[in-house]
Write a structure and sequence with these properties.
4-stranded mixed sheet; 357 residues; flat; alpha+beta
Length: 357
């Protein structure tokens, strides 16, 4: 009896796949993931993006963008951190991808760059197709909103490293700006006005502390509805990080900010001074923007001082733009046209560090 060439060729492959699956890696599930996310990737297509699903590297054609006098690529990478434990507990995974994108593209935006493309790295206990599809759908939606193409990524089964149902996600964004348009902070000067753009909540920072306060030191659950709230604590904490690219890019075409800041880990105290490489004081007017209930509850429950809160959390302001006084009204007008609220929260002065008045 003879064996056909095709069945003979696939026998070792099938045996290897079965052994690999027994070790915790399902190759067929991986192929199904690729089929499921194909449309998500396609939905993020933009000028310069080249189809690259299944290739070894993501492709982007810079020449398609047109002439730049001195193009500078600006890159950023970040993860979501222990906010992921909220997604695990609530079994809700379709928004966490926005956190991964936002943490990267908001950083790239600070330098005045337009995000071009994004790649993600997703490591899981096991690549269950519906779980991966939910995560990647959030990545794709955020990329589309930020105008950047999702041109590739990596999904890795690591069942010996991650518990069942657990995963980690990181992102990588690349943007472009003409060298003359880079926002470096060199123009920052005493008297500049600080314009704050509100956050959607905690964003993706301080979750190790939040989880300790609410779920370890106190008896809160993710389905607890705090007094006066209309949503659960879990829903509030899982609210995705706000994306600032779409409203801020039109402002950059009309006005040159003197500095910008993405308020992430380290809160006001760490991030505002990063706008410039020299000593300046950032004088913040307390109460100049609406407070968010999550920060009031965190301070009260955790017994944290105001200084401690501003040293960890964004406190309701996720992005800061430093402007010459004469540009503030126009900047707020442009932002309002994009549906973006903004508040004058302080000014730049002589001195150093962050000061509250």
């Amino acid at each position: 009896m003879t064996t056909s060439k095709s069945s003979h060729d696939h026998l070792p492959q099938a045996k290897a796949a079965a052994q690999y699956k027994a070790a915790g890696v399902d190759l067929e599930a991986g192929y199904e993931v690729q089929r499921r996310i194909k449309d998500d990737l396609a939905s993020t297509s933009r000028l310069g993006a080249m189809s690259s699903l299944g290739r070894f590297g993501g492709l982007f054609d810079l020449a398609a963008l047109g002439p730049y006098q001195e193009p500078v690529l600006v890159s950023g990478t970040d993860g979501v951190g222990t906010k992921l434990f909220l997604a695990f507990t609530m079994d809700k995974h379709d928004t966490i991808g926005q956190d991964a994108v936002a943490m990267c593209v908001n950083d790239v935006l600070v330098q005045g760059a337009e995000p071009l493309f994004f790649l993600d790295y997703l490591a899981l206990h096991q690549a269950e197709p519906s779980l991966v599809q939910a995560i990647v759908s959030g990545v794709a939606r955020a990329c589309k909103e930020s105008g950047c193409a999702l041109i590739g990524g990596e999904t890795a089964d690591m069942n010996d490293l991650y518990a069942p149902g657990h995963y980690d996600i990181a992102g990588f964004a690349v943007g472009i700006v003409d060298k003359k348009d880079l926002i470096t902070g060199d123009d920052l000067a005493e008297g500049d006005i600080l314009l704050g753009l509100p956050s959607s909540g905690v964003h993706s920072n301080g979750f190790s502390l939040l989880r300790k306060i609410f779920f370890k030191d106190h008896a809160y659950q993710v389905d607890t509805v705090p007094a006066g709230w209309t949503k659960t604590l879990g829903e509030e904490l899982l609210t995705p990080t706000r994306l600032y690219v779409a409203p801020v890019l039109p402002l950059l075409k009309a006005i040159r900010p003197h500095g910008m800041c993405h308020v992430t880990g380290g809160g006001f105290y760490e991030n505002l001074p990063r706008m410039a490489d020299r000593d300046l004081a950032y004088v913040i007017q307390k109460g100049s923007w609406p407070s968010l209930p999550i920060f009031d509850l965190t301070a009260q429950t955790g017994g944290l001082s105001e200084d401690e809160m501003f040293n960890v959390f964004n406190m309701g302001i996720g992005f800061v733009i430093a402007l010459a006084p004469q540009d503030v009204a126009k900047a707020q007008e442009i932002l309002k046209a994009q549906g973006q609220d903004s508040y004058v929260i302080g000014e730049v002065a002589a001195g150093q560090g962050v000061q509250f008045v």
